[in-house]
Each structure stands twice: as C-alpha cells, then as structure tokens.
Amino acid sequence: MQEPKDMFPTDWSPPPVEFLKQKVLPAHPRGRRRLLEELEQQPLDSDQKVGLASLEDLLWNMAGPSQQAVTPEVISGTDYCYVNNLDSLLKEKREQALEQEWEQLLLQDRLNFDSSECDEDDNEVLLTPEHRMLVEKFSVSLQVIPPVHPGETVFLSRPHPVPCILDSSHLKPQNHLEELFLGSPLPQQLSFLHKGFLTNLYLHAHDCPLPLLRWLFQLLSWPLETSSRAFDLLWDLSVDGLFRQPNEDMCLWCPSLEEIKEVFHSLGAYDPLLYPQQPFQQSDRVLENEASLGWWEQQDPPQKVVLDIKLSYIYKFLTLCLLVQPESYTDTNLLGLIELLCRGSLDVGLCLLPKTDLQQLLLLLLENIREWPGKLQPLCCALSWVSNHHHNLLAVVEFFLDVTSRGRQLRSQLSLMIIARMLGQQESLPPWGEKTQLSLLSQLISLMRPSSLGQYLSTKSLPSCQGQQPKASELDHKVCYLCHSLLSLAGVVVSGQDITPDQWGELQLLCMQLDRHISTHIRESPQAMHRTKLKDLATQTYIRWQDLLAHCQPQGQYFSPWKDI
Q1: 553 lies in which domain range?
Q2: In a domain, 126, yes or no
Q3: Phi/psi at 89 (nearest 5 deg)?
Q4: What pTM was estimated for this model as a whole?
Q5: Closest by alpha carbon to 406, among 366, 360, 356, 359?
Q6: Residue 80 is inside which H or E element, if any?
C-alpha cells in the first residue's frame, strides 16, 4: 500500500523559474563580441529585434566599473571604436558648471524680483483709470468702529518709587523691637515689612499708630512685592481693630481725599487740581515742567497688570472704609473722589481689563451722597468733561452699573449731558429738571443725522487743519463713529426711564425720529463696514424701543383721536 501524501508540503519555496535568471556573461570584451555574433546569426522574431538595442546596454552595465572607466566601448552597427573616457568627464564637468551658472542666475533673478516687490509696496503703483475704478469698486475700507474705547494717557512710568517717610516724631515705642523699627532708615523699615516683623508687632496691639496706617497706604504705590505686603498688613490691622471695638463705637482710619490723590500721583497720574475739568493729556508743557523737577521720565509704559493690581488694592480698602464709616467723607469729597476714580480708570493700559472693584466702589460712593438730588447735576457736569473723546465718555457711563436707582439716574442724566456736549448744545439746554429726559432727547436726536454731524465736524476741524477739509472717507468714518456713540448714549437714556402711559407718545416720537433721521440716511456699502455697524445699532435700538412701547399701556387719547369731537 502506498502511503498517503501530505496535504500540506513542508517546502513552501516557489518552483524554479529558469527563464527569469540572468546568465553570467563573460566580462572580457571579446567574449561579449562572440555572444553578439551568435545572437546575430540566429533568426530573430519581432519581439527579439525590439530588445536587441537594450541588450547592448545590459552587457555594458554588467561589466565591472574598472573596465568601464578604462576601456569604454561604443557600438555602432558593426564598427567598434574605443573613446578615451577623459572626454566624457570633461563634458560632464562642463555641464555641471553650466548648471551652477544657471542656478546663480535664477537666484539673482529671484532676489531682484523680491526687491522690486518691496519697492512697489513702498511706492505708489501707477494704475490706469480703468484699473483704478475697478480697484475702488471692489476695495474694502479698513476703518471700523472699534469696540473698545481709545482711553487716555493718565499714568506714566516712574524710574523709581516716590519715597514714603514714616512720621514717627509723635510715637513712643512700647518695646525694644518697635524702637528699633521706628529709628531705622527706610530700607530697614521695608525689611521689617517684608520679613513679617510688623505683623507680630502691631497685629494684636490695642492701639495701632495712625502714622503707620498712612505709611502703609502710601506704600500701595510701590513695586508689587512691597505694595502687596503693605495691603495685607493694612487690611489685617484695620479688620482686627474693628473686631476689638464695640459695635456701637466702631472707628476705622480712612484716608482723606488729599492722601488718595497723593497715592495716584505716586502711581504716575497727573494732579487733577492743576487741570480742573480738563482731560488727562500728555502735553509737552506738562512733561517739560515735571521733568525739570526730576519727577517724570517717560520711558517704557507702565505694566498694565501691575497697575491694575495696585489700583484694586486702593479700591478694596476704600470700599471697606465706606462700608464701615459711610459718613467719613463729605458730599464734596465724594464727588471729587468719583471724578478722580473715573479719570484714572480711563488709562490706556486699563481699557481691556475688568473693573469689578471700581464698579462696586462707585456704587457705594453714590449711595453715601447725602444731598443726592442737588448733587446730581454738578456730578454729571464734572464727569462729562473727564475726556474729549465721545467713546471714552461712553465708557465712563458704563462704569456705573444700573442695579440701583441712583446708578440708573446718573447713567441717564450723564448720557443726556454728554450728547448735548458732543453736539454743541450744552448751553441751549433748558433749566435742570424743567422737562423730562425723553423730551430733551427728542430735541437732540434730530441733530444726530449723519449729514448734520458731517457739517458740524467739518466746521469744528477747520482751525486745527488750517482750512484744509479732511478726506471724504475719513470724515464719513468720524461721522459714523460719533453717531454710534451718541446712539448708544441715547439707548442708555431711554433704558434708565420707567416708561409710564403718559410717556408713551414721547417714546413713539423717538422711534419715528430714529427711523427718519438716522436709519434712512445710512447707506450701506461693502467698502464702508462702519456704516453697516451703525445701521445694525440703529435697528437694534428701534426694536428695543418698540418692545418698550408694546409693554406700556398708552393713554386713551392716543387711540381715540375723535374723543373731543
């Protein structure tokens, strides 16, 4: 019996294919010639004739590299000639040199092309009238209405902090450590603060010396490492002193308005007393006067984050003072403090930073004013002059939150006064409180027409431009920018009102004037995106006012015109 074969063989190698293997040809040239003669004598079919030309190349490639370099062979029909290989090397060398020359020429052309592009960017390209009309038709203006106010230059950098001297002339040291602290110079006193010795010395004391608290408050304008430690110690000493006092006789040291101004001055701000009702501007005259005293050196701008942290220390401590002792400041000081805080918050470096501590402090300051109705008008007059830019004044209005009745009143009255000032109508306003704010706004909204604003701005810019009219595109952008701010302020005036049925007609008149004087006069264009933004704001304002009209029940006289007949 035959044994059964395995289903799966153990040898998986492929079968040999003899015709795929290349035969080893003799390396000698004469051996290769005999092989070619044998192939020529055999009859060739069409496929073999096609591959005959490539066979000669194959034979040449199979030869050794030494034989190729020494005896190169050139086959041409039946004639065989040997050419010296030096000629081919020279030819190859010449080709390489030619390629390198072409590469250098191409690189030089590339550099000339880049430089010509830079020259075209620097110089104005001369276009034909047809091409210029085409470019102007499809060009897009880069002028937009910025979402953030430009700000003012309020704080300038100082090369060195202002020296803060501790007045210890009337202090009697209680122990050796306090005597050592009071008798030491300023660097050693700061070392006591940084190492925490003052915390152990005064935190649990019955009476904390007031000169020490003033000294710590002045140190809030120093570098961040010192100001942070000064604020922590000032806060701990103040709160600890409150817990040690009876509830009915709580007393807390509060800095005066002059001391607060000194700290702002140490931070790099101008003295507002020297420039009443004027915006903080970086004029050459002020810089020359201050530089002569050695106080100001305009170098690098102040670090906005560090400045914001120092101001937050001041805001938090003043908030504590106003919560504990609301009667520590008079109404006049409260108005001056509000104006000072609003001026300082318009600094360029603080435009993009949150102002939570400032807004809480401003609400407390408004609530602590005793004669509120009588102080509202002078406060609005002072705040309407903290800047000459309409967007900065809009930012001042937004500093005050509308979460309290006084905050809403101030926002509404201040917005109306800013609109009147920007339109040059502050002198023609009726006496304060004679008419409602909606009626005053209806008189001013007709002057907010873009064409009227263009005439007003062109006449206003004549003295500064020496009789030269601004470009049409620049004037159009300024008009839309101003109208955008004025329309935002008008929305604040209306939102601060409690619309009653007797005011339904005035609000309806405002909607008609808004659509007639502003919305219909704005022509949108792809080349002027600021017009589109102004158009969007006008549409949103109109919808918002119409929503207020829908929720307000008007009087019967607006629905029955035939009632008196």
Answers
A1: 424-559
A2: no
A3: -65, -40
A4: 0.70
A5: 366
A6: strand 79-82
